């Protein structure tokens, strides 16, 4: 997990540099760090950004962590095109690490309703 978190940060930081995005000089947390929390939340905490935020702070990955509200505002202030580039990069990484295109799909039992003229059964 530790190596994956470091790789996520490195990837975000490199993409931010490539697109030429600059943080405000007084920003407490970099955009790369905000994106790292976002991706770590999705990867390890079922999308729970608060748990990821606290985990990364408590384990020393990000020492100058923003509070819950400020983090949320910073995350939503990131331009959409940066998210698009990061998602594309993650997709390419996944494709190269899975050359056989094998995927595991969880099976769910679906209950289909019969729809008739009298309603749903």
Protein architecture, described:
There is one protein chain. The chain has 121 residues and is mostly helical. The mean pLDDT is 86. The protein has one domain (2-97). It has a two-stranded antiparallel ribbon. The chain has helices at 2-19, 31-44, 49-58, 68-77, 80-97, and strands at 115-116, 119-120.
Lateral strand order in the biggest sheet: 1-2
Number of domains: 1
Instruction: Sketch the topology as an H/E string, one letter per element.
Output: HHHHHEE
Mean pLDDT over the residues = 86
Indicate the overall shape: globular
Stretches with pLDDT under 50, minimum 5 residues: none
User: Could you tell me the radius of gyration in angstroms?
Assistant: 19 Å
Which structural class fits the helix and strand makeup? mainly alpha
Taking the sheet with the most strands, its summary is: 2 strands, antiparallel
Number of helices: 5
Tally of extended strands? Answer: 2
Summary keywords:
single chain, 121 residues, mainly alpha, two-stranded antiparallel sheet, 2 strands
